[in-house]
Here is the input.
Amino acid sequence: MTHARVTEPGIASVTNAMTVDVEDYFQVSAFESYVDKAQWQTWPRRVEGNTLRILELFATHEVRATFFMLGWVAERYPDLVKKIVSGGHEIASHGWEHVRVNTQSPAEFRKDIDRTRKFLQDVSGEPILGYRAASYSIGASEGWAWEQLAEAGHRYSSSIVPIKHDLYGIPGAPRFAFDTVGGRLLEIPITTVPLAGRNINCGGGGWFRLFPYSFSRWALSRVNDVDRQAGIFYFHPWEIDPEQPRPQGLGLRTRFRHYLNLDRTYSRLNRLLKDFRWGRMDEIFLGSEVRR
Ligand SMILES: [Zn+2]
Here is the structure.
């Protein structure tokens, strides 16, 4: 009689990238038409407290991660940036105030990424190598953005999702990291798993809250064990905060996407951090030259 060998999912071989997009609940693209940017100052801020909880959670699991920071947040919470760095994590750029790439001209985009990168470098004392577009807004028509990112000094971007979606996505894009700008910039897509002829997002955000944890665990294990690739996972500080203030008048779909299972995210993250091996984007994808 033989027994199937049971192994822990993903644990053995591959280090996945854990990433946090550091923005507050009122700054998400889905609220753009409900919360005026000029009014951001008036909303109670929750980002600092939620990010500190995340730092504690990561420390418990001895996980080092990459934090894509909004310049807007870093400007108000420089000590938070320093705490993230002292926890052994990587600081990367999420742009200044969450403007989508596909609504900017190349010149506007360049100004935004230069300003954010310089500010984050000054506050953190670390080189800023990575960038993530607001709402994964490098689409099929925004290839010019990679050129700008490389020229501005970034080494990688994690700004696309290779799926079909109403708000973003490049359905035909590669599922795993690929070179752009003649090898000067690496694009590292959010992780997907092919299922019934299409790619399904298994790299975090709303999907992580929508699907049962067993799906996320299965999907990431498949990426590690079958594709032999590192997965990229992302979430936001507001996703562990069911007590956040709620803007009035939100549409049904926006409400569903934003508030679904917020009370379950923290415990699911706890399991995800335990079930897989995790690390920083720069160390996983740029190799030993930035390893410390
Ligand atoms: Zn964002």
